[in-house]
Write a structure and sequence with these properties.
Thrombin, subunit H; alpha+beta; 3 helices; Peptidase_S1_PA_chymotrypsin; six-stranded antiparallel beta barrel
Length: 257
């Protein structure tokens, strides 16, 4: 009986592990608590439950991933500048979304989105780069988010987490993914060399910082912290920076102000 019971448990664990590791949504596993509050760090929430990360780049605009979009505006709010999801105080409703017409959820092309807030916030934004700055393979970068800290779990972390990752060469990343998706010049790959240290459920839309510069937005990964499946980021390339500035410029020309 003990042997049978052990076999049942073993098969259950194998099934659970496989089910979790094929997830396409993205958590920081194996990270550490962020100690200092970041005025620009955003939790995008649905019915006050964390869904994605984001970056405040203007007092009225949040940058995130396009696949984080919700159909209903009324259920979405953002929590700004908090280290803890349960203790955050600056919660803002949203006004609308802006997504590139070229966004493709399957290929991850142009997985980038701007969220216009219902009002200006009292927080210091993170300035996006004025021009594209590609990052060399092997560069040490930092990713932050509230995703689950357990690769077998689905619960968001109450405390903001951070993890150091290394940029992966695009050619190598395409080999890892067998060109599905194809890693283009408008994307970037970064991961950790250790197993179960990386992104998973809940960190989509979060920032990738390299040498204290914002360089990318977390798009997705296959599995949770698999060194051979590094996280894919939407690079703040020339195309994406131009698109962001175009949307922001339209805001200043709108009749709302």
């Amino acid at each position: 009986m003990d042997i049978c019971r052990n076999l049942i448990v073993f098969h259950f664990l194998v099934f659970t592990f496989f089910k979790v590791t094929v997830c396409s949504d993205v958590s920081i596993v194996g990270g550490k608590d962020v100690k200092k509050a970041l005025s620009w760090m955003v939790s995008i929430q649905v019915n006050q439950n964390h869904k994605c990360g984001g970056i405040l780049i203007h007092k009225e605009w949040v940058l995130t991933a396009a696949h984080c979009k919700e159909d209903s505006y009324s259920s979405v709010t953002v929590l700004i500048g908090s280290l803890s999801l349960s203790k955050g105080s600056q919660r803002i409703a949203i006004h609308n979304y802006e997504i590139p017409e070229t966004f493709n959820k399957k290929t991850k092309k142009d997985d980038i989105m701007l969220i216009r807030l219902s009002k200006k916030v009292k927080a210091k934004p993170y300035k996006i780069p004025k021009k594209e700055k590609d990052v060399q393979p092997g560069t040490k970068c930092v990713v932050r988010g509230w995703g689950t800290t357990d690769y077998k779990g689905k619960q968001a972390s109450d405390k903001l987490q951070m993890l150091e990752v290394l940029v992966v060469d695009r050619v190598q990343c395409n080999r890892y993914y067998n060109r599905n998706p194809v890693i283009t010049k408008d994307m970037l790959c970064a991961g950790n060399t250790q197993q179960h240290r990386g992104t998973c459920l809940g960190d989509s839309g979060g920032p990738l910082e390299c040498e204290k510069n914002l360089v990318g937005v977390l798009s997705g990964s296959h599995g949770c912290g698999d060194p051979k499946k590094p996280t894919v980021y939407t690079l703040l390339s020339k195309r994406h920076i131009t698109w962001i500035n175009k949307i922001l410029k339209q805001q200043f020309n709108s009749t709302r102000f």
